[in-house]
Amino acid sequence: MSIDKVIGSAAEAVSVITPGSSLAVGGFGLCGTPMVLIEALRQAQVGDLSIVSNNCGVDDWGLGVLLADGLISKMTSSYVGENKEFARQYLAGELEVVLTPQGTLAEKLRAGGSGIAAFYTQTGVGTQVAEGGLPQRYNADGGIAVASGPKPVSTFDVDGEPKEFVLEEAITCDFALVHARVGDRHGNLVFDKAARNFSPVAAMAGRVCIAQVEELAEPGGLDPDSVHLPGIFVDRMIVVGSDIEKRIERRTVTERK
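Structure (tokenized):
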């Protein structure tokens, strides 16, 4: 592995991703979306992708552009409410979907990147998340082709009271794609505000992490206390500048009085 992680272009950076790969993708809503890398994948028409991400963008932005081109075969997400094409493909049986509680999804990625095989959580106990039966893929006629299976549930003593917990397995992926505000040549990354929610854990869960950064710092140029993700987790990096397009998923404003 080279100490200098910077790659000349997005196309070169994603050239290692092959059809059928699994990807952990950072971002939260449309915040922190690694759009330049996503667009490079779209241009290369790399398909049959299994993607783990908090959401799937919108119809014309983020992971939604890969979905629109039929390049995604499976999504593991916690929120998909703003993407009409996502709903259409899911209900038509064209897309497999594993809906996962948001905090559980983040912890699955963090656990995978930390070498932890599984963990217990109370989230989902007493629901189909634990008991199984959630539709993951439909038939073309609307019937359920694939449903989630039951998960182990165990009881632990918490503050002197027995409580049930469901066992959740960690997630690791072949690759990870993330967007950071600043990175140095060694791959140390600093994320901006809400983009920090899923990006560090997504990066950790990918066996090969590819990052796009707005600003490139030279080694030693970052305060170690400001680094959100150590460079040991990052393998490839491109510089995209700070003037790239950034979108807001749903703008809410108050009328000025």
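The first helix runs from residue 10 to 13. The radius of gyration is 19 Å.
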